[in-house]
Amino acid sequence: MFRPVDTGYDRRGASGDDDPMPYTQDLTSCFAEAIGRSGLDRGDFEAALAATAPALDAIRRAHADGSVPLLRLPGERGDLEEAARLARRYRSEFDRIVVLGTGGSSLGARTLCALADRGFGPPAGTPEIRFMDNVDPDTFAALFAALDLTRTGWLAVSKSGGTAETLTQVLAVLDALARRGIDPSAHMAAATQPGDSALRRLAGTRRIAVLDCDPGIGGRYSALSATGLLPATIAGLDAPAVREGAASVLDPVLAGAAPDAVPAAGGAALAVAALRTRGTSQTVLMPYADALSSFALWFRQLWAESLGKDGTGITPIDALGTADQHSQLQLWLDGPADKLFTLIVLDRAGQGARIPAALAADPGLSYIRNRTLGDLMDAEQRATAETLARRGRPTRVISLPRLDERAMGALMMHYMLETVIAAHLLGVDPFDQPAVEEGKVLARSYLAATASAGV
């Protein structure tokens, strides 16, 4: 287990009492005083951290005036009632739920649902949830061939209601249902923002239930919204607990916490100061928990799409411990010193199956004799952090006492805030994605051209 290190952050709960934060953050191995010249100068970090104060003020103002609806979600509960009703119906009527969507409309919910299904099926009595976030025709053909459509529910998620990939998925599903004489109104629901859109029109003509998305919450920030929490609720997770975890991170900011008492401000200052003073242009997120593999993918989109603008940005790299110790670690240790590392670790010591001494009698197995799977994971996450630091690679460690809904909500809010604060430091808008729109327009023009040509 990692020894707690005093980083100067207040670990108390959102109300200021003794309820602990769901995680701690250790920046010790990011500074030159600990890892040598490739580490960050403490003064450069402190200057960047002080520069986050206006971003924290802006977050407080945005919460007060409601201009960033994301910031109101941790304290909301009323919007979960409709999602809970739909979830109860889906849980009782279907064996499998398929979520149609792409990017943030899929990754946030997938990240949460990984807490309930570790890849071997859901708990007894809970429908299996699949996420279709691409339009690969082979995958859809295999999906339709494998499903009992009479026992399958569908959830289409598109904030704008005009996402080409999601609409195409929906139309393919509607066609499959029609071929089997299945009423889509009994098997499909949609989530999209109010107003006129292709998805709402499709839903209206087929009497498909629609859950409203807040137009002020972009897809990559929507994990904590009802659209992100609906699949999680179907999976049997505690949606209010997710928001409670998010509140434990946000509330100290709203209460006026200084930058050095806000872990997300520290993370943003670290990343931007390392970029500017050390040329650290890439950031690696490596959780040591299979259930956080999708979280690393969710972070990758959040960070890349929010910060990569106007010729600036920091390239995110997703990884998974211990697997990527055997694929990427060689490059990290012996390649270019252009990366910042964040390891997310849990207290694994003593957990899991214990290896009997009789099975590990071979002298080459003595190190694992009478030890557990968790002992090995604990040793490896500690060893990786120490090895990176010894090689002069700046390494942040985020430690979780446990991984549950509250912890996941806290991690998500931490990284949303860290992203917003980093965007402020870089001088970019964290909520738009102007370059992506060009590709969407071109794709539609190609389809229109081939359609007019009769192809």
Over all CA atoms, what is the radius of gyration? 23 Å
| Straight-line N-to-C gap | 61 Å
Give the low-confidence spans. Answer: 1-18
Total number of β-strand segments? Answer: 10
β-strand percent reads 5-15%
SSE order, one letter for each helix or strand: EHHHHEHEHEHEHEHHHEHEHEHEHH
The quaternary organization reads as single chain
- Largest sheet at a glance? 5 strands, mixed
Shape: globular
The class by helix and strand makeup works out as: alpha/beta
Count of alpha and pi helical runs: 16
Round the mean pLDDT to the nearest integer and report it. Answer: 92
Query: Helix content range of the residues, please?
Result: 40-55%
Strand order, sheet with most strands:
1-10-9-7-8
